[in-house]
Amino acid sequence: MNLVPLEHRAAGHDGPMQSNDGAIFAKPAVQAELDFYNNILSQYHGSGAEIDEFEEPGSRLIHWMPRFFGKLASNDPGAGDDNVYIVLDNALHGFKKPSILDIKLGSILYDETASPEKVERMKKVSNETTSGSLGFRICGMKIIKQGDFELGIDGLNEDEVLDKDQDGFITFNKFFGRKLTDSTVSKGLELFFKKNDLPSKIQDQLIETFLIRLKLLYNCMLSEEVRIISGSLFFVFENDIDRWEELQYNDHIIDIFEYLSNDGDESGDEDEDEPSKKNLSTLKFIDFAHAKMTPGESYDENLVKGIDNLINIVEKF
């Protein structure tokens, strides 16, 4: 498989790649993340158990995760553990002009493997940002460039937090989210949903769709016995109005095909008519390098707090 640099990104470390056709996403592998995907798949499929096609969409964590194809050996020195990439479905595939939002969940940003120096550094980040107070932080954002852009958020300097000129998009760096406060984070989120050329009717539809997703995810996480440190919610929506019209404004709440077929098949073959490629927006739970199964330990309060506060803010738009 030939890999090229990822076309669109909003946050994260260097190294993400995609297949030539954009259908596949690959990033340097961390063994803990590979293990988590495999454990979630094993838990979902069970030992020879059949997939329940009639279970409530969005009721399981796997419903929100990118489709997992396994790992790919690489000679690239930038590859991860044992020179391999983790290979996933690219959530951006099929979008022509995507707006992207990456939100890191949790107030605790380190696990038991972190060095004392990293623990102190991550505690400082949490204490000084909305990670500590709200349980989430905007980690990165990319929106369509719209005329003469003005940020208009108190306490933020445009030169420090964004890049205005990047292929028709405005990209917000990690300092954007770190400088937002409890009182200004709603304005930061509002930029994502409303600073575009889409009609207000579509903007309202997107807000309602993402609210439904967040509420489904919240309920889902109440029944998942996992611990996920520094996991992220990955929001995407289409800015190309022609594609909205082509798909008759129909937007799937959950990518049903993906989780029913999430069997780790590494072939990467995709049917052009798959609903997952006809979404006008999507919400994915990503980044599991510091995640583990914790049977018998109930849900992850560190995650649920952030999702709940996100819901409360977006409901007011």
Automatic annotation (TrEMBL):
GO terms for biological process: inositol phosphate biosynthetic process; phosphatidylinositol phosphate biosynthetic process. Its EC number is 2.7.-.-. It comes from the Eukaryota. Pfam families: IPK (PF03770). GO terms for molecular function: inositol-1,4,5,6-tetrakisphosphate 3-kinase activity; inositol-1,4,5-trisphosphate 3-kinase activity. Belongs to the inositol phosphokinase (IPK) family. Keywords: Kinase, Transferase. This is Kinase. One of its GO terms (cellular component) is nucleus. It comes from [Candida] arabinofermentans NRRL YB-2248.
